[in-house]
Amino acid sequence: MTDIQIAVPAANWCGEGPVWSAADQALYWTDINRFLWQRYHPETATVRHWLFDEPVCAAALTDRPGVFLLALGSKLIVWDQADDSRTPFAAPETNWPASRLNDGRPSPFGDFWVGSMQNNVDEHGQATPVTEKHLGTLYRVLADGSATVEDRELGISNTLCWSPDKTRFYFGDTMQNTIFVWDYDATTGEIANKRPFFSGFDRGRPDGSAVDSEGYLWNARYGGSCLVRVAPDGSVDRIIDMPVSNLTSCTFGGPDLKTLFVTSARHPGELRAGSVFSLNVEVAGLPEHIFSLPG
Prior knowledge:
four-stranded antiparallel sheet, globular, mainly beta, Neuraminidase
């Protein structure tokens, strides 16, 4: 593993939702509090951003080139990079603005899974305290825009990942300091048998994660100044110390999926906080799953 680099000195308030597009050879990610959707091309070292009128929280590649499904605070929209068009798609979270959407990812089945939490971002992007531990919900959104509730009474929804063999689904609650695992059926997209997978780790709290091709889960630790690689049996494989406190999520990118991109959030006194970091890893990641749009 090589040295940790600053890929983008973004100064994000809360960088989140990283997605690697193999077609573009580019990293996309959000800044929740500044309502930004961003793109970084490593080959040209160029960055572009698009501004929205509410938090941009998570994203998915779709089966249409250049078209993404974006999870905003209040709803899901279809965003086309070619003309910056924004088409409403679904609104699974019915408690907006008291609650908002947070982390999300498409599954091997081709649907989109997204969790919610107490809304902690005001209309100007300023952070507000999270005091409610039970306002979050886990949703499964199908290609026709319909949604089912898969879990309830969550604090801060984070980490949505699947194992390489598509038999496990991982989902975390930051406030419980726990990542759970369910049995996953790739033929139906259904989950069952929820149980704790990784709980009580004392460096920060679990934020976003990514799974590599060996089935190890890489978890960004908010407030913990580290990443932790967790083995399929739930044991700690390794801890990677990072140069800022608030790591928010990660994804594998680069031509060989051996670059781990890590987003972060600001922290008082940390000049590099809010940057996107990168590090080379020995084990490649998994390609992003694709959301299937209707029609």
